[in-house]
Amino acid sequence: MLEKLNNQQRHLSALQNQVLRNDTASLSEDLQQVVNRRRANSSREAQRETDYLIALFCQFVDWRNRYREKNPLPDTERQEVEFFLCLCQKLFEPNSSIRELLALQRMAAFHRSLAERKAAEAGSPDRSILAANAAQSSAQQPHAVQDSSAEIVTDGAAAQLAAHWETGEMDVSATEEPVTPSVQDVATGGGEQESPMDIDDAAKASHASVFAASGPHHARGATSHGPPPQQTRGAVDKQRTLSSTDVVMDIPSSLPQLAREIVVIVKYLYGNKKEFRVDLTKTVANLLAMIESDSVGSDWIECIRERRKNRPALIARADHTKALDLQLSVMTPAHSLHSVFKTLPVVVKAAGYVEISDDVPQDSATDDAGERSSSNAGSVVTPAADDAIWLISKSLRTACLLDKEAGIKERVRVLLKAIALLFGQTSGVVAEADWLRNRGLKCDLAFVLTTPNGGQMIVAIETKLGDLFNSGKPQPIVDSKGIFKTEDAIGIVNSYNQVFHYMAESGLHVSVITNFTQTVALRSRIDGNEPLVTSFDCVEDPSGQALFVLPYTLLNEVCTQTHGKAERNFDQHDLDGGRAVAAQFALSADNPFGYEHGAMTAQGGSSHTQRASPRYDRDSQRSITSFLHDGAAQSHASDNSLPADIAKQLLKAAQVVAAVTRQSTDLTMAEDEPDSPGHGRSAMQDTSHAVSDQRLWMARSVDPAAPPDCLRMREVPSLAAVPEALRCKTVDDALRLEPGIKPIDIFVGSEIGAGRFGVVREALFQGLPAAIKRIVLHLYEHNQELYRHEVHMYLRLCCLWGVAVATLLSCGMDCHDSVSIITERGSHSETWPESDVELAVASLKEIHRMGILHGDVHAKNVVFVVKDNERRALWIDFERSEFSSDTHKQRKEISRLRKCASSIRQKFESE
Ligand SMILES: Nc1ncnc2c1ncn2[C@@H]1O[C@H](COP(=O)(O)OP(=O)(O)OP(=O)(O)O)[C@@H](O)[C@H]1O
């Protein structure tokens, strides 16, 4: 029997090594599947690698921005932290070695059980067999596992890294290093271990192999030497003792691959090899030390204990910059979602805050391919360890697309609960489901959970909306022409009500925006367990570019009431009516953004209707207003009336549209006008724009002296543009107008500029006035390069943000095939007085002092802001900037600026 087990074990050793070598020919079917799937994924992943890197980049920038708020310029240490983030992130990637890890893990678990059985049969562990097996497997596959230290470079090895820099690859295939024992070798006490080991020793050694990377290794090469295995063993004794229930994860075996990927990312981040001074040894050591020490883990465990004591208190974060929080909060492309959820126990273990045991029955969660989740093998988080963690792990796996059997409600509910547990309070959510869909994930609802540290995680759910609101019968939400239908919109709203209800149950603070075939934006705010969801917002954005938060309820009400039938499709008028009300809200004196932002939003909303599109001309605006007018009027029709408060809202909304779009010169309608007898019917009957009713709100003739629409669009209306009577004075006012509406993280407004890259729009980014430059990657082959360059330069100039350079608020992968650069928004100087010129010159000099030439000095690339009562000139558009301290070129840039400014001034004066 012993001999049989021994043979089996040997066989497994061989298999495992084959997995590691990607030699699948003679693998068992099971393992072959794992490897094949991994390969398939790799190619798919490879296709989106660039996008993914950009997405990653975006996250890093976000993170870095926050980090740098408190810290000055980047230095080696910080780069290391970023590296650490990369490493964390890469652990999740399907095409990283995670699957291999899982396969290994499974193998190792199997090994352990074999060994245990063997030990049980023999009465005591037969150490010699373990040692013999390991020695044999080691002999069979001397190079099966690369020495991870080969990839761990020290500063001294930077030159060697630089040699690989051009290709962005590290050669990990050949090594002359002594072989680090494979996971199995270690698990079986093998390798060059001479003294026999028991199972715990094996686990220890296994863990030690994890820590092999944390030693003071050197990169391979003429001057570097890997640590002899004996040294690694020496480190073992210092490690904490692990029990036999510890998951055996051979992180070092995956490090070569991880490190290679990370090198690509860092290359992406830093571009310039001279700046690359990352001590990987230290970085990896940090990561591993963290895993080992449980330092992060203990924080978490404390938090979770707290939470358990005081349900449903939210988990307070001990340190948001570390471990799991980071790992899970790094933007997770949809594709990786599966891995995240499937491997959560492993990840949890990696964060070192939960015991993982294979003592409990294995979970039967299945993935969408119907097979057993590989994360189950040998590693199930026990409820005993912590029920919260257990719930998280289990729910995420079962809820997120993995368990087809569970009812949708259950899935959503469990998922949200799990998220609440995991993230505690979440906020600020913007997602475009299309973005996910385009990347191969079918989903109806996408959340981007913003964790307290600002990281984000996309969670996608295929809700089959119909299931939620129509007793399991799916309903199309668009008709054959792709038009969004009213009754379906109602259904969607109802279904989201359900979702929001679950959120409320979970104590989440979540806003949601999601895209359907046509853009649909929904949002809700939930406070504690009291949902404040009384209405939803819905908009179809014709450009497909913008996200707006608009009043759905009103829209729907207006639509059905005015047109009689619910089947009527929403059209632009409906939507614009919605925008008008949103504008009204935004203009309210108490809107959370303050007036200025609100005005911008309002302008964004209303000027949206003004765009050059044939449907957004002045006539269209007129008809919008008429439409609202009619709606209000209809409320007073004898048998089909709108509630008075809705009518009032309509009135206000129309007035705001008129006011904001400067068509209100003869605005005479008072708020109580709809009460006038006879008003409604006639207005309703005559829906043309030329209603000769004196109550018509539109200016009857367009002021010929008024600037053309395209110019007007750029103006931010002043508060004075909104009649006093129309302004909301209190939050209650605003909420009464449109209950439930609150600003969200990103408002994208009208176009404010255009360049080679694409279109720049005004935006509100987390309440700040911003400009979002959207770059469609496929439009121009160098777009990606330009984008990277520009972001890179912004980063280089981070110490001048808000002083001489516009702050880079965010950047990264956007929906569709585009990337965005979001910067703080300023305004151009119209007349370029001498004082502005001097400000701009001073800012330019600051940039020069940083060793950078702007490269595209032009008046349009300077915007002005007022901060601390001080006017500042901020430079934008760094796509053509370059590193140079050439004083001649610097002088040239300054004189060019002066020339540009003075010609604009002269032109202005002559006009
Ligand atoms: N932060 C900002 N604040 C205000 N306006 C901005 C901002 N960023 C960009 N814009 C507007 O958008 C225009 C185009 O932006 P930018 O120059 O960055 O784009 P581009 O595609 O690189 O243009 P170009 O081809 O001219 O280099 C600017 O001239 C400016 O009017």
**Span of the ends, CA to CA:** 101 Å
How confident is the prediction overall: mean pLDDT? 44
Q: Largest beta sheet, briefly?
A: 5 strands, antiparallel
Total helical elements: 32
Within the largest sheet, what's the order of strands? 9-10-11-13-12
Q: Which percent range describes the beta-strand content? A: 5-15%
Decide which structural class fits the backbone. alpha+beta
**Low-pLDDT regions:** 18-28, 37-108, 124-284, 286-643, 656-723, 725-746
DSSP E strands, number: 17
Helix share of residues?
A: 40-55%
Query: Roughly how many Å is the radius of gyration?
Result: 31 Å
Q: What small molecules are bound in this structure? A: adenosine-5'-triphosphate
Could you characterize what this model shows?
This protein has 911 residues and is an alpha+beta fold. Among the domains are: 2-293, no CATH class; 581-607 and 619-743, no CATH class; 749-911, Transferase(Phosphotransferase), domain 1 (Orthogonal Bundle). The strands form seven sheets. Strands 9-10-11-13-12 form a five-stranded antiparallel sheet. Strands 1-2 form a two-stranded antiparallel sheet. A two-stranded antiparallel ribbon has the order 3-4. The longest helix is centred in the N-terminal third of the chain and has 25 residues, at 98-122. Strand 7 (526-527) and strand 8 (530-531) form a beta hairpin. The protein starts with a helix and ends with a helix. Helix 9 packs across helix 10 and helix 22 packs across helix 25 (618-634). The structure holds adenosine-5'-triphosphate. The site of adenosine-5'-triphosphate has 20 residues, from strand 9, strand 11 and strand 13.
